[in-house]
């Protein structure tokens, strides 16, 4: 009996999430670009480029390889998910 009332109270407090839209995609793209920009300047030059390199990058990204891209894009998705949930909760998107 106690567990049933606990489960019923949890079911009533489920937050709604934002459905996909072009504005959600734009927020995620901007978050990823910001994370890549931050990561490029935050990763020290001694540690940059230890793994496989990415082909076809401009000279500006010399030494920015696959591990750095994977790390910064992962951070960008975490950042983007937080921003999307916050903006959705605020009613902006």
TrEMBL record:
<dbReference type="InterPro" id="IPR035982">
    <property type="entry name" value="PSI_centre_PsaK_sf"/>
</dbReference>
<protein>
    <recommendedName>
        <fullName>Photosystem I reaction center subunit PsaK</fullName>
    </recommendedName>
</protein>
<dbReference type="InterPro" id="IPR037101">
    <property type="entry name" value="PSI_PsaK_bact"/>
</dbReference>
<feature type="transmembrane region" description="Helical">
    <location>
        <begin position="20"/>
        <end position="43"/>
    </location>
</feature>
<keyword id="KW-0472">Membrane</keyword>
<dbReference type="GO" id="GO:0015979">
    <property type="term" value="P:photosynthesis"/>
</dbReference>
<keyword id="KW-0603">Photosystem I</keyword>
<dbReference type="InterPro" id="IPR017492">
    <property type="entry name" value="PSI_PsaK"/>
</dbReference>
<keyword id="KW-0793">Thylakoid</keyword>
<comment type="similarity">
    <text>Belongs to the PsaG/PsaK family.</text>
</comment>
<keyword id="KW-0812">Transmembrane</keyword>
<feature type="transmembrane region" description="Helical">
    <location>
        <begin position="64"/>
        <end position="87"/>
    </location>
</feature>
<dbReference type="InterPro" id="IPR000549">
    <property type="entry name" value="PSI_PsaG/PsaK"/>
</dbReference>
<dbReference type="GO" id="GO:0009522">
    <property type="term" value="C:photosystem I"/>
</dbReference>
<dbReference type="GO" id="GO:0031676">
    <property type="term" value="C:plasma membrane-derived thylakoid membrane"/>
</dbReference>
<dbReference type="Pfam" id="PF01241">
    <property type="entry name" value="PSI_PSAK"/>
</dbReference>
<keyword id="KW-1133">Transmembrane helix</keyword>
<keyword id="KW-0602">Photosynthesis</keyword>
């Amino acid at each position: 009996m106690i567990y049933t009332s606990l489960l019923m109270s949890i079911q009533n407090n489920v937050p709604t999430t934002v459905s996909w839209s072009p504005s959600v995609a734009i927020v995620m793209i901007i978050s990823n670009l910001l994370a890549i920009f931050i990561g490029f300047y935050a990763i020290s030059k001694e540690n940059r480029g230890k793994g496989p390199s990415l082909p076809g990058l401009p000279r500006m990204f010399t030494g920015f390889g696959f591990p750095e891209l994977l790390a910064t894009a992962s951070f960008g998705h975490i950042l983007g998910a937080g921003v999307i949930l916050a903006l959705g909760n605020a009613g902006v998107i």
